[in-house]
Write a structure and sequence with these properties.
Elements lengths: L3 E6 L5 H10 L6 E2 L3 E2 L14 E2 L2 H9 L3 E9 L2 E8 L11 E4 L2 H11 L4 E7 L2 H13 L6 H14 L2 H6 L4 E4 L3 H16 L3
Parallel strand pairs: 1-7, 1-8, 2-7, 3-4, 8-9
Antiparallel strand pairs: 3-6, 5-6
Length: 198
Amino acid sequence: MGKLYVIVGKSASGKDTLEKKLRDDKSLGLRHIVPYTTRPIREGEKDGVDYHFCTVRQFWQMTEAKKIIEYRTYNTVFGEWTYFTADDGQIDLNSHSSIVVGTLVSLKEFTKYFGREKVVPIYIEVEDGERLQRALNREKHQKNPKYSELCRRFLADQEDFSEENLLKAGVIHRFENIDTTRTAAEIAEFIKGDMNGH
């Protein structure tokens, strides 16, 4: 029986990089889950790799077909963007464990869908000043930097990831991400122990 490992953390804390390192670690055997989004594709992203980029209409068709496990809609300065995970065959906890990057909202929905014993939250922490610098560096390399959206997300994270909300979401396991390689190794050891019941 597999588990779903959900990496959560504030924006620019290195969640996507850590998730990639962990799924590339063959000793863990974790399956990657490609989420869906209605937001425009960013420079350097690939459809079907980073996200399945879809239209709002496609999202509603999947909703009507009861294929949505969890979703979040953000009212950004560019309009509404929806991110979601679909029951499309990618997650099969009867045969393997999977890893996904999520939010506290999606973590709660995953837990509701699969059960608390099957979902393991992994919280990534980075000092706020370092995190803001990382976000700025990432954004300024975009063809059309969206600094106002970056600021909105940064401020929203302070409220979203309050200690109260972390506790409610069942977040216990925390990892400070100063050095990505070291942090990935620490999380890998934790996952191996968890898989073996330690």
